[in-house]
Amino acid sequence: MSSPILKRIPLQMFWPTFDPFLFCAFHNDTYPKANGSMGPDAPLNNRPLGQDFGGIDGWRMYHGKSIPGFPAHPHRGFETVTIVNKGFVDHADSIGAAGRYGEGDTQWMTAGEGVQHSEMFPLLNEEGPNPLELFQIWLNLPSKNKMVPPHFTMLWNEDTPVVSVADSQGLETQVKVVAGAFQNVEPSPCPPNSWAADSKNDVAIWLIDLPEQGEWTLPAAAANLSRTLYFFEGEKVALNESNAPINEAFVLKSDASLVLKNKGKKARFLLLQGRPIGEHVEQHGPFVMNTRAELQQAFNDYQRTQFGGWPWPRHDQVHDKSKGRFAEHGEAS
Q1: What is the top-level taxon of the source organism (predicted)?
Q2: Is the peptide bond before 20 cis (omega within 30 degrees of 0)?
C-alpha cells in the first residue's frame, strides 16, 4: 500500500501552505517580565527595531518599537485566522473595532474589500515571564468574495470544541476544532463569506495534542483536498510506523487515514485542510487578488482611502493593561 505521506518539508518561521491556504506563521516567543508600559523589561538597543525577527534571547519585537507586534497595516482579498495558545493579542482596526484575546482564543478576520489593523502583543505580567505562542494562518477568498465588507469573529476558547479520543490504553488525544467538524462535533461559526463557511469545501483547522505514548488515527477525508500536518512540539513520533522528525510538515493524501504513535513526551500538531479554490492568485505583500489589475487597484484604493483611515491614537495601539479579554466590533459586521 502506498504511503499517505506525499511530501515532507522542514519547518522554518513561515510554514509551507497550499491552496486554499496562503501563509502560516508560528510565533513562539519567551518574553521576559513586563515593564510598566506593556513592553519587555529588557534593553532594546541591541535590536533592529522595526524589523526585529532574529530571535535574540528567544523573543522578537517584530515591527514594534516599544511593544512587540505588528502596528497598523492593510489587507485586502483574504482572511486571517489567528490562534493564540499562550499570551495575548491587542487588536484595533480602521473600522473602529478593538479587542484583546489570547490563552486559547482565535480571531477570524475577513479583510474583504480592505481593512487596516494592528496586532500588538501586550506583556501584562510584571513579575515574571510572558510567553507568547500563536499561529497566524491566511485563508484565501474566492474571487466572488474578495470585495465583501470586512468582518471579524471571535472564537473564544470557552466556546471552541475540544474532542478527546481514548486509545486502547486509555490515553486521550485532544483535538481542538477551530474549523471543520470532527466526530460530528461542529466548530463555532466562522465569518459568513469565508471559504470555510461552505461545508462542501472541507476546510479543517485542528490542533492535535497527542499524549506521551499515545496513539491516534487521523481519519480519511474526501479526495483531492489540500491536507498538511505540521509537527511543531514533541520528541519521537511515528506516522504509519515511519519515524517523523519534529519541525516538519507532512503533505498528506487526503482520502487516506494516518496513524500517529507517540514514543516520547506530549506531541503537538496543526492540521490545515481544504478544497483548493483553484483560481489564479496575484499577491503583493498584504494584498491577494486574482489579476495584476486588481492588485494595482488595491494599492490605488489604499493610497486614496487608507481603507477608512486610522481612528486610534497610536499605530501600535494597545488597550488598558487592566482590561481582560474583550471584543468591540465597531462598524464591522
Answers
A1: Bacteria
A2: yes
The one-letter amino acid code at 261 reads: K
The domain spans of the chain are 5-34+64-278
Cα dihedral sign, 328-330-332-333 = positive
Cβ proximity of 56 and 95 under 8 Å: no
Q: For the structural domain made of 5-34+64-278, what CATH number should be given?
A: 2.60.120.10
**For the segment 73-117, what is each residue's pLDDT rounded down to a tens digit?**
999 999 999 999 999 999 999 999 999 999 999 999 999 999 999
Nearest alpha carbon to residue 254 among 229, 221, 231: 221
Q: What is the pTM of this model?
A: 0.96
Residues 208-212 have a mean pLDDT of 98
Name which of 50, 64, 58 is nearest 130 in CA terms. Answer: 58
Strands 162-166 vs 172-179: parallel, antiparallel or unpaired: antiparallel
Cell 492535535 identifies what position? 208
DSSP single-letter state for residue 145: G
Amino acid, single-letter form, for residue 29: D
Q: How does DSSP assign 267-318, residue by residue?
A: EEEEEEEE-------EEETTEEESSHHHHHHHHHHHHHHGGG---SS-TT--
C-alpha distance from residue 322 to each of 67, 119, 141, 325 (Å): 16, 18, 36, 10
Maximal CA-CA distance, the chain: 62
Per-residue pLDDT reduced to its tens digit, 320-330: 999 999 999 87
Compute CA distances 305 → 11, 111, 288, 295, whole Å.
Answer: 38, 15, 18, 15
Q: What confidence tier does 294 reach under pLDDT thresholds 50, 70, 90?
A: very high
**pLDDT grade for 331, boundaries at 50, 70 and 90:** low
